[in-house]
Write a structure and sequence with these properties.
This protein starts with 7 loop residues before the first helix and ends with a helix. It contains nine helices and no strands. It has helices spanning about 10-20, 25-50, 50-70, 80-110, 125, 130-145, 150-160, 165-170, 175-205. The chain has about 210 residues and is mainly alpha-helical. It is elongated, with a radius of gyration of 24 Å.
């Protein structure tokens, strides 16, 4: 049976739970989680994200952020649920933004290889040649060595080892949503160093 978050009885109990949660009472936090999490998951996060793993990640982040900001929560006579709902909606929106940025970064990642590809109507055929392939691998490796090792690991897992996002997240011991953020930052760092390296090579005298 779902809790009626508008009832006076619940609101009185909720205020007591929130006060205890502010003092670090873990049981109060767990009670709040049990009361709010199922509805946030079903009514806010799944409809917005459409993916169970993503919704679970967003739910976890929602409560983490809410607990961090608990001292700033302004009780205006309505349930804490509605404040949590806004945090959850914002978290879902942020995850969509990260995915969109990651898609753009992934697209750019392929374009970063263009400076090493000969101007041929069939570059994939030219890249099959050992000399070109060796040059490409050497440059990619050089760039990976210039960026944060964690970022290099994320790119290596996802692209060089061609592992799934879920496997990559497990290998880095992070949640799937966190891995998406790490990968986005890794691709940005890779692009920056790639452009710096290619630019330096272009300036070298022949």
């Amino acid at each position: 049976m779902e809790v009626d978050f508008t009832s006076k009885a619940w609101l009185a109990r909720e205020r007591d739970l929130l006060e205890r949660a502010r003092r670090g009472d873990r049981e109060a936090v767990a009670t709040l989680y049990r009361a709010f999490a199922p509805r946030l998951f079903a009514q806010v996060l799944m409809p917005k994200l459409g993916n169970r793993q993503a919704a679970e990640d967003a739910l976890s982040e929602t409560f983490r952020k809410a607990l961090e900001k608990l001292d700033r929560y302004d009780d205006r006579g309505t349930s804490f649920y509605f404040w949590l709902g806004r945090i959850a909606a914002n978290e879902a929106t942020d995850m969509h933004r990260v995915k969109a940025r990651t898609r753009r970064a992934l697209s750019s990642f392929e374009e970063l290889l263009a400076p090493l590809r000969p101007s041929s109507p069939r570059p994939e055929k030219e890249l099959a040649e050992a000399e070109q392939l060796a040059m490409l691998k050497e440059t990619v490796q050089s760039v990976l060595e210039r960026i944060n090792p964690r970022y290099a690991r994320a790119i290596g897992l996802r692209f060089l080892e061609d592992r799934s996002r879920e496997d990559c997240a497990a290998a880095l011991d992070v949640k799937l949503g966190t891995f998406d953020v790490v990968l986005l930052r890794a691709l940005r760092a890779f692009r920056k160093e790639w452009e710096a390296l290619i630019g330096a090579e272009a300036r070298e005298p022949a």
